[in-house]
């Protein structure tokens, strides 16, 4: 089942769909430098932990591949030392674009390791650049396959759990938060991938999703993805999770992750923690679906995860409220935004993510399988998984 595509590449060309304009305007914008990639990630034209790592890596590949074709060749391709001095600051800069999603840091570290290994192997600068180009493309390409694997692991595990509780394992209702589909990854998705898998195998009744204020990744992006794939679904406001659990038979909550600590504490879109508390109250399995690259063994628990706070204004506006979008003075399409607060409001709390304690998480699903806590334990030991 094919969904929307967040990144399109042809040779050295990279285009991303501008997610700030979705769902009303489909506009692909060109990425022509690592600066463009940094800006697109920071401004959230592209978002979702795996997708931003893919774009960062692809922009490095584009930069080096274009340099390889330049004549005369740039100075930095004349020695391994010059190449290192050129590439390392780029990687560090890309890494600063957004702080919470660990996949971005994982991707830049992986490229830095490739650079170092090729230098140690005694290769010349051109060969090292070629190694980096290959490795960068792998970062993006590997994503789709592993998403399908984790979606299947998680989907089959959930069916089994429902059967163990005496259910049929058919016609499942699953709630998700934010957007974790093909727009947030290189394709298929993580938590939304699990939902897609259940739909493809005829086991899904309905997908439920929260609007995910203030950025509305749910109502703008997940809604569009589910509609595009014709998956039966119901949107709820973030405030309605408790009511949904009281009145409907929800079989699981499946969410993605931006960073998972060694003990399983999970940072994900703001509102995930609320859903987890309510799921525990209603005895509903709470499943985190994410690639191994989202697990950060260097962080012992959630208190060590940096939480991004977005600009205050972003919590004061709704996006995509007026259709069609207007043109600004330079003729560029702008998404209409409506203020929902008095102007110049001072006191605004706008963290982009929250941390769900491992205690509230039933299972963490990666491409390697399904991890659960030991009998009676309150935390996971993910060093066994990674
Ligand atoms: O701020 P965003 O939109 O980048 O946040 C995205 C999320 O929180 C996702 O759930 C997470 O990155 C996983 S995407 C597969």
TrEMBL record:
| Keyword Membrane carried by entry | no
Q: In which pathway does it act?
A: Amino-acid biosynthesis; L-methionine biosynthesis via salvage pathway; L-methionine from S-methyl-5-thio-alpha-D-ribose 1-phosphate: step 1/6
Give the UniProt record's GO annotations in the biological process aspect.
L-methionine salvage from methylthioadenosine
Q: Which GO terms describe its molecular function?
A: S-methyl-5-thioribose-1-phosphate isomerase activity
* Catalytic residues (positions): 258 (proton donor)
Q: According to UniProt, where does the site described as Transition state stabilizer lie?
A: 178
The EC designation for this entry is: 5.3.1.23
- Main location, first listed in the record: cytoplasm
Q: Which GO terms describe its cellular component?
A: cytoplasm; nucleus
Location in the cell reads: Cytoplasm; Nucleus
Keywords for this protein: Amino-acid biosynthesis, Cytoplasm, Isomerase, Methionine biosynthesis, Nucleus
**Family stated for the protein in its record:** Belongs to the eIF-2B alpha/beta/delta subunits family. MtnA subfamily.
Known role: Catalyzes the interconversion of methylthioribose-1-phosphate (MTR-1-P) into methylthioribulose-1-phosphate (MTRu-1-P).
Q: Per its UniProt record, what HAMAP family does this chain match?
A: Salvage_MtnA (MF_01678)
**Under what name is this protein listed?**
Methylthioribose-1-phosphate isomerase
Q: Which organism is it from?
A: Jaapia argillacea MUCL 33604
Q: What lineage is this protein's organism placed in?
A: Eukaryota, Fungi, Dikarya, Basidiomycota, Agaricomycotina
**Encoded by which gene?**
MRI1
């Amino acid at each position: 089942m094919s969904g929307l595509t967040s990144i399109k590449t042809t040779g050295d060309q990279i285009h991303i769909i501008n997610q700030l304009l979705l769902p009303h305007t489909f506009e692909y914008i060109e990425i022509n430098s690592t600066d463009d990639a940094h800006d697109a990630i920071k401004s959230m034209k592209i978002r979702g932990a795996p997708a931003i790592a893919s774009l960062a890596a692809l922009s490095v590949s584009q930069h080096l591949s274009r340099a390889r074709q330049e004549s005369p060749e740039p100075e930095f391709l004349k020695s391994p030392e010059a190449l290192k001095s050129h590439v390392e600051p780029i990687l560090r800069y890309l890494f600063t674009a957004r702080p919470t999603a660990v996949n971005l840091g994982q991707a830049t570290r992986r490229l830095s390791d490739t650079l170092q290994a090729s230098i140690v192997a005694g290769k010349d600068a051109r060969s090292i650049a070629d190694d980096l180009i290959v490795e960068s493309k792998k970062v993006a390409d590997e994503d789709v396959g592993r998403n399908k694997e984790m979606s299947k692991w998680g989907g089959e595990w959930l069916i089994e759990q429902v059967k163990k509780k005496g259910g049929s394992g058919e016609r499942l209702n699953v709630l998700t938060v934010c957007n974790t589909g093909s727009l947030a990854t290189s394709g298929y998705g993580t938590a939304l991938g699990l939902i897609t898998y259940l739909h493809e195998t005829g086991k899904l009744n309905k997908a439920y999703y929260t609007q995910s204020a203030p950025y509305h990744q749910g109502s703008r992006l997940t809604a569009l993805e589910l509609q595009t794939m014709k998956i039966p679904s119901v949107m709820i406001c973030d405030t309605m999770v408790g009511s949904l659990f009281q009145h409907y038979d929800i079989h699981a909550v499946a969410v993605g992750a931006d960073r998972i600590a060694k003990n399983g504490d999970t940072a994900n879109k703001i509102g995930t923690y609320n859903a987890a508390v309510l799921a525990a109250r209603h005895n509903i399995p709470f499943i985190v679906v994410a690639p191994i690259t989202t697990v950060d063994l260097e962080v012992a628990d959630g208190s060590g995860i940096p939480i991004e706070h977005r600009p205050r204004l972003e919590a004061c506006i709704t996006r995509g409220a007026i259709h069609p979008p207007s043109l600004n003075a330079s003729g560029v399409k702008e998404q209409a935004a409506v203020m929902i607060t008095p102007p110049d409001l001072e006191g605004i709390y706008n963290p982009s993510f929250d941390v769900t304690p491992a205690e509230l998480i039933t299972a963490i699903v990666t491409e390697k399988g399904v991890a659960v806590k030991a009998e009676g334990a309150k935390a996971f030991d993910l060093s066994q998984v990674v």
